[in-house]
Every structure is written in structure tokens, then in C-alpha cells.
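Methods: example folding runs. The two proteins below were folded one after another, and each record is reproduced exactly as written to the output file, sequence line first and C-alpha cell line second.
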Amino acid sequence: MAIGTMAVVDPPKEFVPIPETAAPLRLTGWDHIAFSVPNLEEAERWYVDVLGAEVIGRRNWGGSVDPMRPHVDIRIGNQVVSLFLGEANGSANTPHMFHYAFNCRNLDELEQWQGHLRSRGVDLRANGVFHGHPGMGAVSVYFEDPWGTRLEITTWLPDWATAEAEVRGRGGVIMGEDAPPRPAH
């Protein structure tokens, strides 16, 4: 299946039926995500120190001789992130909504992450206030790694009414409603 155009196309305003799959089975989720960083040693240290990642393997650097491109595999929760040596994702051509989202168990943990990121000097979007996602129970904090990769930590509350009350009660913003303008990238 080839995509005919790479231009941004406004979605139709009228009803469009939700497509049904012809796939013979269902995927179970992500195996890993991969992106590039300009310095593997610094990136490995930052993801371990700031986000609590566990290094699970180095390829073709740091004592490893391997035919693969130089990278480090780290685990964050149950997810694997492969950091490859290369140009940073934060370059000017990165699509606006391109980001990676991690999750935590509850609002108390999200507050702890918010404080931890601040204590590490991480630049949090909108000064780190909680962001509510209209119509769903998701509450998030947004930030970037030192190389400009956009990151998010999200927790899920039972429903939108609970999430909205918690976000507003903590001085947060509702996405699309009262979120401050994003900086141009």
C-alpha cells in the first residue's frame, strides 16, 4: 500500500466510517522504539540518571564489537528504547506532534516525576503543569531530552471528569482549550 501524497490534508468534517481490519491477527503492542542521538555515552547517562532507564546492551561501542550500527538498548518499565548514533531528532525537520510517551501508575507518581525532572534541570513544557486530554482520563507532563527529542509521561485516571477535576485543581491546562502556545521547533 503506497501513500499517494506526503502533503498535510485536512480531515473531512462529515462522518467517516471507522475502517475494519483485514489483518489475519492482532499485534500485541510495541517491541521497541528507536531514535538517534549525537552522543551515545551522554545519552545513556542521561536516560539512566534522569528517567531511571536500565542499560540492557551496547552495540559496537563501549567494549562491544558488533556488525550493527553503534547504539545502546535501554529498558524503561517494560519498554525497550534503542538509542542510535546519529543526528538528533530535535532537528528542524521533525514533525510537530512527533514524540514518545512513557507511562506511570498514578498522579502521585506523575507529581514525583515532575519534581524529579525539575530537580535535574529538565526544561518542562508550560513550566511542567499537568496537561489534561479532553474526553479521556489521560494526564501528562511534557519535556525534551537534551537533544530535542520530545517526551511525555502520562498516567490514566478512570474517566475524563476525574482527570479534568485533578488537572484544574492542580493548576494544569486542558489540551486545545487553555494550553499555552507551543514554541516553534
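Second run, written to the same file directly after the first:
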Amino acid sequence: MRSGFRVYDADTHVSPAAEVLEQYVDSGFRSRLPQLAKYRAPVSRGVDGSDGLHNYRVATKFYRRILGEAAPRQSFTGRESRWRGNKMPRPGVQDDRPDNRVEDMDDEGTDIHFLIPGSWLSLHDLPDPCFEVAMIRAYHRHMADFCGQFPSRLKGLIVASARAVDEAAREIREWGNSPWAVAVKPLLPRDIPADHPDLEPIWRAAQDHDLPIAHHSSTWNPPYYPGYRDVWDNIFLGRMASHPWGAMRFVASFIGGGIFDRYSSLRMGVLECGFGWLPFWARAWMSRPHMSAAPRSSSIGRANTSQAGAFSAASSGRRGRTCSTPSPDFSATKS
């Protein structure tokens, strides 16, 4: 609690090291772990006690050009900005010390953390989906342990692979009633839209467990936000244009494809994408039903979604006190 308000951080990250995730993989998959060795990158988090650990990273992108300059700087990555204050996190808050994370939360006045997984999701870019699925399963087991020590303070999402839909639905059924699991994040390849009919089992399983769908686009690792190659190698343009574009595309595909019509109690929220664009964009798509090219969508999905509470967007304190909107209800069913 801070200044008399309960604080729900709807977009904070957890990136367990490869050494941590590997403890949770299926026994039958362990023989394949050496194939992932080349994707281990040293963790640059020595300040929180992570020396010697590694993260899985595949196809990491850096944004090397500074606006106003003709060419990229090879020494610039786009990650030089720091969003936190002078106090460093306690050791292990990304890996296996939930007690230290909760102590940090107490210091900053945060009641609940909604944890978003990090760089290991980039295994999604490997041709064989078995690596992605294996780590998703390991991550869910890890989250059950990590969040289970503080079930009212630490929450997370179930990752649903669009390349293994039956497995994704099975994971939702396995973990959907767990106290830590309060949303579903679909992991979509570049060539599979959110409205693809093959994804129906994911939406059905999410609705059956009263779990909202969470869209959170990626900046540094696949699956990337749309247009990541079209921002002139600059992170500022990526943040200003591609993150919101990713949310617009996902929401339009979801609503225009009639998913809310077929799953009337399903909810969805967007993170990391801002929200100032929402009212103007929503009015635009409500005024253009003839352009939707979505014969399966009805007026319920197009016109009533935002008013009916099916869709929400998270707000950021950095954007100022004049910008506010309700955050996605990722805690309504589980306390």
C-alpha cells in the first residue's frame, strides 16, 4: 500500500536464469538441453547476486542508431536507459528468492506483482517448437514454486504456444485453477494472427477457467512487435510506434475476428503499449464496420467490448497524472 492506495503492478518482469528453469524441465527432455547451450548468454545483473548465471536468448535485437545521426553506433544498444532509482533489487528476485522480491515490494509500497516472463520466450524463434514447449512447462512449474510462497502477492500468466495449440490448452487446464495463474499470454509467431481458427482451443480453455488474455509485445527478443525492422534502428521510434501498433493489431484481430462473440465471458488486456490511442482508435473501428472484412464478427464484438468490461489497458505512472485508465483485471478471480 502507498499513500492509502492498494498498488497492483500489472507489468513487472521475471526472467529466471537458464540454470533455474532447467531444474524444472521434464526428465525426458534433459538429454536435449545441451542443444540449447549456444543460446545461453551471461546475466548482466551482478548487482542482485546473479553472477555466473545465464539467460536463454535467441535472435536478440539491439537498436543502435540515435535520432539525428546518419549511421548506427556499434557501441550503442538502445538499452542504456535505466528506469529504476538508486536502490538496487535484492539478490535472486528474478530467480528463486520470492521472499526478497516481496521485501522489495514492501519497500516500494506495492501490494501485488503481475509477473511477465522474459528472454527465454525467445526460444519461440527456434524451428523446433519442442524447445519452446519444454521451457513453457518448466516455467509454469517454477512459477508454482516461486509464487506459491506468497500466493496473495505474486501472480503470473500461463504462456500458450500458438505452435502447439493442444499442448497450450492442456497447460491452461493444468494450471488454470492455480492461485498464481491469473491470465493467459498467447505466444504468436509472425505468420499466425490472433484470429486464426486453429487457436480456438486456447480461447476456450481460457474462458473455461475465467482467465483474461494478456497481450504484451516484445522489444529485445522474439516474438517481436510488428514493424521492428521498420523503426530505422531506433528504440525511441520502436517504443512510440511499434508497441502501440502491436496492441492495435492484436485487439483489432481479436475483436474483428469475432472471438468475443464466440466466447462471451472472455476478457482481454494489453500491456507495455500505452493507452492514449485507445479512444480515438476505438471510435475509428466502430465507424468502419464495412471495412472489417470480418464476416464472423458482430456488432457486439465491435461496439460493446470496451463498454462491457471485456477489454482493458494498463496505465503507467511515468505517463503523468493526467493519463489514467483502469488496468486489466488480472486479479478478479484469485486473491
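Comment on the second run: The domain at 8-68+87-319 is CATH 3.20.20.140 (TIM Barrel).
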